[in-house]
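Operator note (shift B, R.M.): manual run for Signal peptidase I requested after the automated queue skipped it. Running by hand, logging everything below so the morning shift can see what happened. Input copied straight from the record, untouched. If output looks odd, do not overwrite the archive copy; leave it for review.
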Amino acid sequence: MSALTGILYAALVAYLGGWYTGYWSGNFSLLLFILTVVTLAYWLAERFHFQPARARAAQALLDADAQRRQTLAAQGISRVDGDVEAARQQILQQPWWMDWTAGLFPVILAVFFLRSFLFEPFKIPSGSMVPTLLVGDLILVNKFHYGVRLPVINKKIISNNEVKRGDVMVFRWPVDTSVDFIKRVAAIPGDEVAYLNQKLYINGKPTEVQPQGDFYDESSMTYRPRFLEKLGEKEHQMLVNPQAQPIFQPNRPDGPFPYQDQCKYTIEGVRCTVPAGYYYMIGDNRDNSGDSRFWGFVPDENIVGRAFFVWMNFGNLKRIGPFH
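Run finished. Output pasted below as returned.
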């Protein structure tokens, strides 16, 4: 078993090393599931086989020592050498390969449960959600807000809250589901959404927008106009650069996106009708966001959860707190 455990750990290190260096993409949910199953197998083996076997061996040692002492006592020998208790403790001691498998099972199980059904941490890698979220923000995602989903396959088994316009959502990118994206929900199934001349329209009505002065973008070291937008029930900040002249067109390496015929692209922008079971996502940094305007709708089965809290930013501790 020690050799098998060594092989498993070598495979784990190789997998993580290749993932880290970019030789292949990893699936952390699947990896965590496999680790939970493997450590569970070791825990069960320890609980019902190896631990009882060690206990029997230790008891056999005590019985043999007691028998030996009884035999020697019958011969008039009362002083007997040998530290049987030290040998007993050595027999009962859990081997290293059990410490690093069965011993880790409760911790891995707790992490698997918390991450799969309650909350999952994410790091903001790009500026597409500036000014709401900055590069380097470490955020928490509520995994059960929209319903309970089975780990790995992401199959919803219990429904909860409906997706609302204005929610900040983490989802699996439709182009490559191994990659997680974070954007704001602009439109829900049945909505007609349009982004024309740098203005967002929902069902024919422009969203309410109020100027908020300039925002200093540290990544580009430039000032850009900031606005307060009401999308759904809550307001949020967003950036639009009137001097930019964006051109929107479908941009999917795998070809047309599902229901692309529901969208119309013009020189002014794009207009779409959101199909059932899909959502239209947009970044708060409107001129620096790859979102549904380019690669299409997000299906319900790609939803990971609702982002709601910045729990750390090592460069700016004032960032810690809820957001919307």
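Quick read of the result: The chain has two domains: 2-112, 124-322. Helices lie at 2-21, 28-74, 84-92, 96-99, 105-118, 292-295.
Leaving this for review. - R.M.
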